[in-house]
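Just curious: can you write a single protein's sequence together with how it folds?
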Amino acid sequence: MRRRLYLTYLPLLAAALLALAVPLATGTAARDTQDMYMDRAGDTARFASLAETALRTGRTSALHGELEQYDALFGIRAVVVDRDGAVAISSRPDLDLGPGDVRERVAAALSGEAARTTPTVWPWRDAPMVVVEPVVSGGEVIGVAVTVSPTDPLRRGLLDAWTRLCAGLLLVVLVGVVVVALVARWVLRPVAELDLAAHALSEGRFEKRVASGAGPSELRRLAESFNAMAGQTAALVERQRSFVSYASHQMRTPLAALRLWLENLEPEVGPDGRTDHAMALEEVDRMAHLYDALLAYASAEAGPVKADDVDLTALARARAGGWRDVADRRGVRLLGPGPASAGVLARAAPDALEQALDAIIDNAVKFSGDGGEVRIATEAVPPDRAAVIVTDSGPGMTEAEARDALQPFWRRPADQNIEGSGLGLTIANALVTASGGRLSLSAADPCGLRVRIELPSVAEPGA
């Protein structure tokens, strides 16, 4: 946004300065040219008045001396031509008017045309300034007085004035840059703080707040509203977590007591009630597992955890070994990375990632069934990701079911009678997200479910 502010305000400032500077520069050139022209026109008119007597009487020595003195003093060539256009008196010997503009002006003056103003002198135009004045005697043009002035001093003065003007413009632009920088900082600092606070809030750090005493009034009100929202969100989340945790803890004691009572009742239960008695014990165990899952979910939702360097291959191999006995009892073949598998390093919270893998493996073994197979593999994902994949041979999921499977307590209608709380994948997803990773579900080939965990990778030592 800071760059956009610069790109918005600085071109507008530059356009405004150019709109002022160009007329000022051209006006300065026109004014200085006109001042020089008026000065030379006065001198030329004086020479024309003196030349009237000299041309009429033929006594030109006095005027010739004055022209020479004028030329020596100011470096301006002065000439008087007769009615035929020939040089009659000049400030320099053998001075030739030459072709072009000077001859045209002399011819126009001899024909009685009024003297024209001179073109504006520009620093890049080195043509001299030519001023002509008809010499009139008795209403008849008998000659023309001409001055040819070099414009070097005028051009140097214009260049100096324009340089000062450009320096002033540059100073104004620099001041504008400083002002825009200060305004941008004043405006964007609260925005940057809001951005950081929003990121902290999205990562579960609800204690982050925004200073509401700086910036425009609109942003101050926004900061106050954000702080109020963050406080309410933190209170609601904390209340929810506290409720789940408290309720889960509180229910464990009566459930344990209920199971003990049911076990004590077993000798008194007749043959007709033994089935119901066993079902009651299973239901109590199911409720205990559900409360354990709720506690795990509440812990997983607590926010980001501290990440460390983790060897995904070693972790996957260890978890495969830990679940192999369970898989064997259920008739499931569990395969993990072999001893020769290359290590894949990632940034994650080891404990959280281990719990997530346990939940995923438990789910895969349970749904693969007798004779099924579960594979755990790791891979590096260039340029900066690493993944661990758990693939089972169970019934799998459709795309719609894969989208819904991460929701708490979601279960397929066909799996309602299978043991579980519907929180396994939800807890795994929360733990992976807390570690800075991403969990995704997809169909395996030819059947089953593929659960993929992607995490930020870590360069191997020496790489």
Summary: Residues 332 and 372 are 5 Å apart (CA to CA).
